[in-house]
Amino acid sequence: MSGLRSFVARRLLLGVAQTVAVVLLVFALTEALPGDAAVALAGDQPDPARIAAIREAMHLDRPAYERLADWATGLFHGDLGTSLTSGRPVGQYIADGFGPTLLLATLTVALLVPIGFGLGVLAARHEGRLADRLISSVTLAVYAVPEFALGVLLVTVLALRLGWLPPTAVGYGTDLLGHPAALVLPVLVLLSRPVCSLSRLVRAGMIDALASPYVAQARRYGISGTRIRYAHALPGALAPAVQQLARTVDWLLSGVIVVEALYVIPGLGTVLLNAVAERDVPVVQGLAVVFGVLTVVLNLGADLVAHRLAPRAAVAA
Amino acid sequence: MNHTDDTTGEARDTTVAPVAEIRNLRVEVGGRAIVDGVSLKALPGKVTALVGASGSGKTTTGLALLGEYPSGAHVTGDVRLAADGLAGYIPQHPATALNPARRVSALLTDIARAQVRHLPRGRRRTAARERVLRALAEAQVPDAEILLRRYPHQLSGGQQQRVVLAQALLLGARVVVADEPTTGQDALTKSRVVDQLAAVAARGIGVVLLSHDLDVVRVLADEVIVMRAGRVVESGPAHRLWLAPQHEWTRELLSGQPEFTEPETATGSGTAPGAGRPALRIRDLTARHRNSTRGTTEVLRLTGLDLRAGESLAVVGRSGSGKTTLARCLAGLHRDHDGEILLDGTPLPRSLRDRGRAQLAAVQYVFQDARASFDEHRPVLHQVARTAIRLRRTETSAATQEALATLTGLGLPEDLVRRRPGQLSGGELQRAALARALLARPRVLICDEITSGLDSITRRGILGILTTLLHDRDDLSLVLITHDLDTAALAHRIAVLDAGELVEQGPARRVLSTPSHPFTVSLMETTTRLGAGTGT
Amino acid sequence: MTKRGHMTKLRTARFALGVTIVIVPLVLALLGPLFAGEPGPRTTSFTVGDGHWLGTDFVGRDVWQQVLHGGRPVVLTALAATALSYLVALPVGLVSALTHRRWLEELLMRPLDVLLAVPSLLLILLAATVFSPDPVGLALLVALVNVPDAARLVRAAATEAAARPAVEALRMQGETWWRMAVDYVGRSMLRTLVADAGTRLTGVLYLVATAAFLGVGVAPDAADWAVMVDRNRTGLFVQPWAVVAPALLIVALTMGTNLLFDAALSDDRLSERVRGEKLPDATRTLRDGARSEART
């Protein structure tokens, strides 16, 4: 048991270090601006008033470590700073965009788990037969396709040609739940990559387990096929799948940014893209910290769950 | 291929009906017969041993009793199991048969569940648990309650083996197939396994033992079937086979150990020619292992040990006793140690990287896993010759000639050694590994368990080579790391390690005949017991 | 037919499929610019026909001509980024695996562990806010986000190879560092590396295209399949070909690459041969059908 405790402690420590590093990295990147940061950020309109405003807003006249200390203290208290363009608090930007993004993410994960496991188990059960070959080939093919390309093709076919679904969520604002049809395409596109990776992993894990000496022994001793599949082989496939689930958070994030841009959904991704386009550094910083910490926490959780599921498997910490 | 429950027919001539029977089995894979014309009977309470080198088809035959065949196999012949047709299986590594993601209780309850189906739903749970606990008690598992809550990887090797056995007992198996249960185990573990299998047979279960470990077969078997290249060479009651083997191959298999150092040199004082001049001295050696979770653990503490020129020293002990660490310290492969290792009075650098050519050449090491110690992409001859090129500055052509001569001397033909390691057998590669070390013209040759995992005939060949070496090169000293006292008996001197401490050392004769340390005594007793059948 | 033969056949089929799918976008990307010719005069936006095979785009350029030009940046940036990430990951991973100095290993690997925690697209967007990178900058960024993972893989593969008895045997023979590190360790790692390069290239293609779609590392009117998808979306109702053609090409490119590498690298003839030799002792057994039915 001390092994488990020391593993948890080490993994937590790494999580904290990663969080701190994300904060530092985000700050350092904006520090790395060549020349006068304010001039650079003012971009295409180097209007002296704007430059002065930026310098004022970002406290560029003060030494870097003081600004870092201030910013980090603010973060600690939940204060993410103020936007350069609008003067509104960054926290408010995030609060505005949070709803739609959370809805998309929740729906996606809720569908991802049953579909991913279902397809994986189905393929493993029929290893080498038509169902398996079909699932394996399709998941392998779709796995690598960028969401935006798949997204526009689906819009062209399902929304424009066939007219089954609305092409975008324009006009629905943040009230997406009231228009479920508008959610179908975004969720479908968001699911495409994670479902493929998860089902492939579950399939591979189950096939490995089904070929293992311990499953051979269970069969020998007359344990039923169903029980072998779900009580003996599936648990073995579970640990890597849970970790992959956490890794897909990274993809889900990329996916959310693209999907929100593609279907014009006013979520966090749209907020981030607008801020990037306007070079609104505090907003980008705030969002980066939120996303970064979220990724760290989810990965941490997944590693702990995976460690619990397969105590013997060495989880990289 | 059919598994009928009819055992009456031909079985009438024996007084007891066999619990399992194979008649004229032929298993063909890809047009090649890997088992051909094999018949065997497993009688209740008796141990039937299938003996043969690896690849002789004994595993295929054993698995046939369980109704399992290699994928794509074409099978003809009859396999019959007794009335209830239940067969248990004990694999070579018990851990592989236990699902790492499930607790012991789940693993056992799964089997028990099928047997309590006839009971009302409410009573099934307790009934299943009772059965599980009974099976664990029968398999001699202490602290069953604690064990049930553990995962397989939290158990010791012995506990894992008992759980696998409990599974078979829980199943109510009438016949148990044990596949190489003692291969690579030390004497104490072997003795424990032997006890367990004997206890299984005592319960009236038929045991089919697949093994190339003749000591174990000798102690356990009632009936022996000798296999070679998929065919039965000879079979019969164990005592008859041992006393009067009829087939030449059986005679070769059963023939005694090679004459290692039997001549005058080994007897009496236990000193070898050139005695008194120590080639290698070890002073206050302490070695550690680093582990990322548990920190450092001390695995070896030696105050002093000498190796004289021309002498052979066997270092024996159970697995985990620190004997391999000792060997690796000497060879410079284990850097994490304090103390001195003196070669002819000069301290050797701790790490291989800091040793000069002459020092490297002087102390050579032969690995347990010969196959893993060769680069699979280059011909064996080329790799062997590199020793002379690198360590003795020999010209490439001269080195190749020398390597070829040495390899041929060890019984490896030229066309074989020009191939890559993948095309050589384990025994052949072990000879090549010896040649590779010998080309350095070493003062000290360290052999780390180089015969474990080889079948008895191949092992005898390798030990024969070592014997010849000691005779021919009188400046060469040997360090034999082994858990096998039979091998150790061939050395001039024996050092016994237990839990990292040197518990006893002395001339081989003395240690083997009058062991002084309690650990050596227990090691000796189990070995003697295992070897008891030899003279009868 | 044996199971193994079956799998080999399946793999060959998949390989052929991958080649078929990838050939069109790849040829267009590499050779397209040679056949594109001089750009014609700009006409009305989003027209169909009128001498334009695939119509015109959002600023009235010929879509077919844009398609011919637009594959090269995607493919070249992806290839450059993959190569660059190995350029850094190989020495870092090799040194940290083969060194015996603990501090050096920590110094090299720990910062990468931290970088691994940041979602890749986020890191790219973050950098884009500050630097406004050009295509070279994009390649560098994509390479950077791939370094931690690649370095870990190199290190793991090298550590595994270096811990084999074969390396210790080479040490016992007093072999040179070069012969051990490059001849043996390098060679043993090669297969793992090639397989990884395949999956990494698909991942890099994804990232490069997505970043370009989001406007990172490209000019707003660049001839680039991903940019075309983004910019011509406004005319999707009028002139879908300006979006569909580049989108299809990107799908074919990524899909085909993945199928191709998977078929070429998964469990190929090498392991087949090894397994074939061991067949008599094979523990992977099939149960006799009759018996399993009797039991269940």
Automatic annotation (TrEMBL), chain A:
Residues in coiled coil: none
InterPro entries: BPD_transp_1_N, MetI-like, MetI-like_sf
Membrane-crossing segments per the record: 102-122, 134-164, 176-196, 251-277, 283-302
This protein's GO CC annotations: plasma membrane
Keyword Cell inner membrane assigned: no
Pfam entry (one): BPD_transp_1
One GO process term, biological-process aspect: transmembrane transport
Superkingdom, natural source: Bacteria
Keywords: Cell membrane, Membrane, Transmembrane, Transmembrane helix, Transport
Domain ABC transmembrane type-1: from-to ranges: 98-306
CDD domains the record matches: TM_PBP2
Transmembrane helix found in the keyword field: yes
Intracellular or extracellular location(s): Cell membrane
Membrane topology: Multi-pass membrane protein
Entry similarity comment: Belongs to the binding-protein-dependent transport system permease family.
Name the UniProt record assigns to this protein: ABC transporter permease
Species the sequence originates in: Streptomyces sporangiiformans
Organismal lineage: Bacteria, Bacillati, Actinomycetota, Actinomycetes, Kitasatosporales
From TrEMBL, chain B:
Organism domain of life: Bacteria
Gene Ontology BP annotations: peptide transport
Start and end residues of each stretch annotated as Disordered: 260-279
GO terms of molecular function: ATP binding; ATP hydrolysis activity
PROSITE patterns per record: ABC_TRANSPORTER_1, ABC_TRANSPORTER_2
Biased composition regions of type Low complexity, renumbered to the chain: 263-279
Membrane topology, from the record: Peripheral membrane protein
Entries under InterPro entries matching the protein: AAA+_ATPase, ABC_Ni/Peptide_Import, ABC_transporter-like_ATP-bd, ABC_transporter-like_CS, Oligopep_ABC_C, P-loop_NTPase
Pfam families: ABC_tran, oligo_HPY
Annotated GO CC locations: plasma membrane
Entry keyword annotation includes Metal-binding: no
Main localization category: membrane
Localization per Swiss-Prot or TrEMBL: Cell membrane
Transmembrane regions listed in the UniProt entry: none
Alphabetically ordered keywords of this record: ATP-binding, Cell membrane, Membrane, Nucleotide-binding, Transport
Domain ABC transporter: 20-254, 280-524
Recorded family membership: Belongs to the ABC transporter superfamily.
Official protein name in the record: ABC transporter ATP-binding protein
